[in-house]
Amino acid sequence: MIKIHQIKIEPDSKKALLDLNPYFYSKKAISETALAFKEVCKTTVKTENNRTIVELSPIGSEDCEELAKKFANFALSVSREMP
């Protein structure tokens, strides 16, 4: 299994934290992604040390790590499509 350093899983609280570079992941792209994922997770976004921290809390039985990977990939795709 490949460990992705931008993803941290908190197994006790069933949360995933994404540490994203705002150069690649715009705030608008993250907002649009959070809206697209609203049926599967709750999303909290904050800025720390020039990084965007996204906290994901699955609503159902979705695996935290898989959810985080899907969220990050979707957000990156959305960012690339923006002017």
Helix content: 25-40%
* Terminal CA distance: 35 Å
The description of the largest β-sheet is: 4 strands, antiparallel
Shape: globular
Strand content: 25-35%
Order of helices and strands: EEHEEH
Oligomer: single chain
Number of strands: 4
Question: How many alpha or pi helices?
Answer: 2
- How are the strands ordered across the major sheet? 1-2-4-3
Low-confidence stretches: none
Indicate the radius of gyration in whole angstroms.
Answer: 12 Å
Mean pLDDT: 91
Q: Which class best fits the helix and strand makeup?
A: alpha+beta
Tell me what you see in this structure:
This protein is α+β, with helices and mostly antiparallel strands and 83 residues long. 34% of the residues lie in helices and 31% in strands. It has two helices and four strands, in the order ββαββα. The chain has helices at residues 27-36, 64-81, and strands at 7-10, 15-20, 41-48, 51-58. It has a four-stranded antiparallel β-sheet, with helices on one face. α1 (27-36) crosses α2 (64-81). The longest helix is centred in the last third of the chain and has 18 residues, at 64-81. It is globular. The protein starts with 6 loop residues before the first strand and ends with a helix. The model has no long low-confidence stretch (mean pLDDT 91).
